[in-house]
Amino acid sequence: MKLRNIMCSAVLALLAMANPQAQEFVAGQHYQEVKPPVATSVPAGKVEVLELFWYGCPHCYAFEPQLTEWVKNKPDYVEFVRVPAVFAHNWELHARAYYAAQQLGVLDKVHQALFDAIHKQGRKVFSEEEITQFFADQGVDAEAFKKAFNSFDVDTKTRHAIALTREYGITGVPALIVNGKYRSSAQEAGDLNSLLKVVETLADKEHKR
């Protein structure tokens, strides 16, 4: 009987090693605590998972299909939010483009297209003029886009994105934030697939609080 118990314990240990979800993710190694935590605006009972990204980032581009699939199958209690990170002028222009697309109701149409234009087609979309032309090529009225791009609403949201980039203490993208309390990246988690597993574990932890 003792031998059987030992063998079962050994098998369970091997299964745990083979199953990343069974691993215990460690603060300071697989993810970092955000101090102080950043307040979220998700409804009660929901857990916010927020992605900080940049259209010019090849890692964000590579992550996008996997992340999109994860969002489709995420737990019901998870509220997914995207925020364009801002570290430099180019990043700010892309943040404005993101929020202008959101304001015009064309985000679903242009989000992946902008990624593809930069990383698949090798197109330069890094100035206001180039971004305006890109949107025009997607069927968006150029004047309407310029108005949205320079609007007070887009300016306010872009400033908020700049503030969040700083408050979350990220050093690169893509980065995922859970409930304003924890942040992780592929570098910390090990790879992009493990990053989502870390996020799922932390989101489940927050949901059960």
Number of helices: 9
Query: What is the overall silhouette?
Result: globular
Q: Could you name the ranges where pLDDT drops below 50 across 5 or more consecutive residues?
A: 1-22
> Strand portion, in percent?
5-15%
Question: What is the CATH superfamily classification?
Answer: Glutaredoxin
Strands of the widest sheet, in order across it, are: 1-5-4-2-3
C-alpha termini separation? 39 Å
Q: What's the CATH class label? A: Alpha Beta
Helix content, binned percent: 55-70%
Structural class: alpha+beta
Give the biggest beta sheet: 5 strands, mixed
Count of discrete domains: 1
N-to-C series of helices and strands: HEEHEHHHHHEEHH
User: Mean pLDDT, nearest integer?
Assistant: 91
Here the CATH topology equals Glutaredoxin
Count of strand segments: 5
Give me the secondary-structure topology.
Elements: H1 2-18, E1 32-33, E2 47-53, H2 58-73, E3 78-84, H3 89-104, H4 107-119, H5 128-137, H6 142-149, H7 152-167, E4 175-178, E5 182-185, H8 186-189, H9 192-207
Helix pairs in contact: 3-4, 3-6, 3-7
Protein model, in words:
The chain has 209 residues and is of the alpha+beta class. The protein has a single domain (26-207), classed as Glutaredoxin (3-Layer(aba) Sandwich), CATH 3.40.30. It is built from 9 helices and 5 strands. It has helices at 2-18, 58-73, 89-104, 107-119, 128-137, 142-149, 152-167, 186-189, 192-207, and strands at 32-33, 47-53, 78-84, 175-178, 182-185. Strands 1-5-4-2-3 form a 5-stranded mixed beta sheet, with helices on both faces. It starts with a helix and ends with a helix.
